[in-house]
Amino acid sequence: MIEYSPDDWFKALLAALPEEKVSQAVSDDNALWINIEDNVSRLGSLTHGQINIKEIRRQALTLLETESKDFRVVVHLLRTLQHGGNAEELLLAAKLLVQYVQHYWQQAWPKNQTHKIRFAQQVIKRFETAAGSFSRGASETQHNAMPGELAFLAKLWSDNGYPTLAASADALFTLYQRDMSEPTPPTVVSAAPVQATEPSLISPTAVVVQQNVPVISVESHDEKSWRETLLKVAGILCERQPDHPQGYRLRRHAIWQNITVAPQAENDGRTPLAAFSADIMADYQTRESSADRALWQQVEQSLILAPYWFDGHALSARIAERLGCHDVAEAIKDEVNHFLQRIPQLNVLLFNDRAPFLSASTKRWLTPDKTTLPTGTMRPDDEVLLSRQHLQEQGLEATLRYLNGLPEGEPRDRFYRQYVAAQMMEEAGMAQLAKQHYRTLLNTGLHMSLSDWEPALLACLEEKLTTAQ
After folding, report:
1. Which residues of 428-465 are buried (b: 16+ CB within 10 A; e: fewer)?
2. What is the pLDDT of residue 54?
3. What is the pLDDT at residue 385?
4. pLDDT per residue over 109-148, tens digit each?
5. Three-state SS string across 37-102, please?
6. CB atoms < 10 A from the CB of 207, how many?
7. How far is Cα 199 from Cα 223, in angstroms, rounded to an integer?
């Protein structure tokens, strides 16, 4: 029997599969799936003791690694981790769910949103039921990690357009945070015995010493209070797990979550906003060559007060690289790119002293290698072909959902994707609606400048001129 370490769980979950396998349902005739469904349905019944939990987990991981990313397989796998109320397994379940939602939520089976939401709510309900067990048995590290995972889960569902699930994850965050705040004397908790037929796949800790953990008052009655709560949680995560990206992602979510439009600007792009202090920036840059965690923390705190100081995010990422926190550096870049894709006008705006929101060096930091297509980028012909396949197999609604779920890319990519959507409407027999979309696209295209169409190209030209000087 294969022994799985925690790393093996994520390796199996995130194993690359062909696109068609990622999105397809696991076959009802698959022997592993039949056995998993039969055994999981007996969890908690009188025959529970006859179930080989270890084997069920192995089979589920095998399916995810080789056959499909079907969410139903993940739900069953998580149930085997949630059922016993073991703190370490509950935390692993939360981490697996976060990784799954981050990588496969939109494209994986089931395609029906109602079904997907219902399965997710089952997982959430089991986390609710297990909160008390987690609180009693978790170590300080586990107590600190769980709220961060749940907050990040809420962010992912919110970003994917599932507000109901995001709200449920927020409620879970509050529940687990509240249980953490209940004072309990330090106790020694022996690891619970496990039946011979269902040995744990996670190496159990023989003795867990429960210690005091930070107490956070969760305030969510208005946007400002919720922002402060998220920033406090992010601060704790960054302090205790500085080499893990979740805290840094959560901090940027808190900073930018309520910014939905670009600041007002003149025709030349100048805004009334003041640039970040040049003296402080110069001080940070002088100390960068010998950067330590104290400097990094100062930079991160400055970012909270200056939401459009993108040069500061680039600086923070460079410091992270110097300190060996490569995953954090990539996460910071990813969050900045996501924010700029959401509000692309920010790329060309200026502070009131005409300094750009994004300096040339920061634009170079954010710009991917142009010699290769970014992950997920497709040629226009591919988009038409796959969209037509979706239209034939699943109908217009699923096709439009597929197009909306593609990576945003450059403005021209988004424009062309809208054109493909209009084509699909026309092919589906909705000629009048398609005509309206064609007209809108034509009017938009007639008023677009080169900087709107190809901002990355202009950034490359600017870089060439800067280098030539």
Report:
1. beeeeebeebbeebeeeeeeeeeebebbbebbeeeeee
2. 87
3. 66
4. 998 888 899 899 989 988 988 888 888 888 888 888 888 8
5. HHHHCCCCCCCHHHCCHHHHHHHHHHHHHHCCCCHHHHHHHHHHHHCCCCHHHHHHHHHHHHHHHH
6. 8
7. 45
410 vs 404: CA distance, rounded Å: 14
Amino acid at 12: A
Q: For residue 313, what pLDDT is reported?
A: 95
Tokens describing residue 372: 């290769």
β 188-190/207-209 pair status: antiparallel
Q: pLDDT at position 138, please?
A: 87
The token pair that represents 245 in the structure block: 């990206």
Q: For the chain, which residues score pLDDT lower than 50? A: 1-3, 46-48, 182-213, 220, 369-380
Predicted TM-score (pTM) of this structure: 0.46
pLDDT digits (tens, 9 = 90+) for 88-107: 999 999 999 999 999 999 99
Q: Say if residue 110 is preceded by a cis peptide, omega within 30 of 0.
A: yes
Backbone φ and ψ for 188, nearest 5 degrees, come out as -105, 120
pLDDT of residue 123: 92
